[in-house]
Automatic annotation (TrEMBL):
Domain of life: Bacteria
Record keywords, A-Z: Transducer
Entry keyword annotation includes Ubl conjugation: no
The keyword Transferase appears for this protein: no
Lineage: Bacteria, Bacillati, Bacillota, Clostridia, Lachnospirales
Domain Methyl-accepting transducer: 1-217
Annotated Gene3D superfamilies: Methyl-accepting chemotaxis protein (1.10.287.950)
InterPro entries in alphabetical order: MCPsignal_dom
UniProt protein name: Methyl-accepting chemotaxis protein
A Pfam family it matches: MCPsignal
Length: 217
């Protein structure tokens, strides 16, 4: 009779233990399920963020290409304006020499008196033409100087844009690397949660077998 009471008490204690295990397993299963859902949600969000970062990186790369091409063409324009300035300097030099020659011709025409009158008129016209050429040359030089200043300012501005784009790309790269690490961590957490879920399922099988062994359902 005493043995039967002991067995009854043991079964009762075992039943309480199994019920406690059931409750604990249910809670663990719920927690594991919540972790898996949370991990899946986090993974989806991070993947979307990575996609956005990759789009930004592509946009920055395209911007850098445009800036680089534009800077190259602006530098070509700067070189061309420099050549035009050289031509203007040549014209100015020719105008100065022509002016000197026309003055000498006027002096010689004055010495020739009546015979040099026609030549003096020609020399005067040549001198006027030289003066106009010198004026035009100066205007070209001034305009080219303004163009070169604008070009230099534009090149500086484009360089700043390029440098800023490169800096932003480095930051975006860093963000992308962090996000990839978050994805790896989320995958790892998801895997752990699934392993826990599988382990709980296995423990539940053992618990069910134990309940069956003592006549419990």
């Amino acid at each position: 009779m005493e043995n039967q009471n002991d067995n009854t008490e043991m079964i009762k204690n075992l039943t309480n233990i199994l019920e406690g295990l059931d409750n604990s397993q249910e809670q663990l299963e719920k927690n594991a399920f919540d972790v898996i859902n949370s991990s899946d949600t986090s993974l989806n969000l991070v993947k979307e963020s990575i996609g956005s970062v990759e789009e930004i990186l592509e946009m920055i790369d395209n911007l850098n290409k445009i800036v680089s091409e534009t800077s190259g063409r602006i530098n070509e324009l700067k070189e061309l304006s420099g050549k035009i300035e050289e031509f203007a300097a040549v014209i100015s030099n020719i105008s100065n020499k022509t002016n000197i020659l026309s003055l000498n011709a006027s002096i010689e025409a004055a010495r020739a008196g009546e015979h040099g009158r026609g030549f003096a008129v020609v020399a005067s016209e040549v001198r006027n033409l030289a003066a106009q050429s010198a004026k035009s040359s100066k205007e070209i030089t001034d305009t080219i100087a303004q163009v070169q200043t604008s070009v230099s300012e534009t090149v500086d501005a484009m360089t700043n844009v390029y440098d800023n784009a490169v800096a932003q790309k480095h930051k975006a790269d860093s963000v992308g690397q962090v996000l990839h690490k978050v994805v790896d961590a989320a995958y790892a957490a998801n895997e752990v949660a699934r392993n826990i879920e599988n382990e709980i399922a296995y423990q539940r099988e053992i618990t069910d077998e134990a309940r069956g062994a003592i006549g419990l359902k």
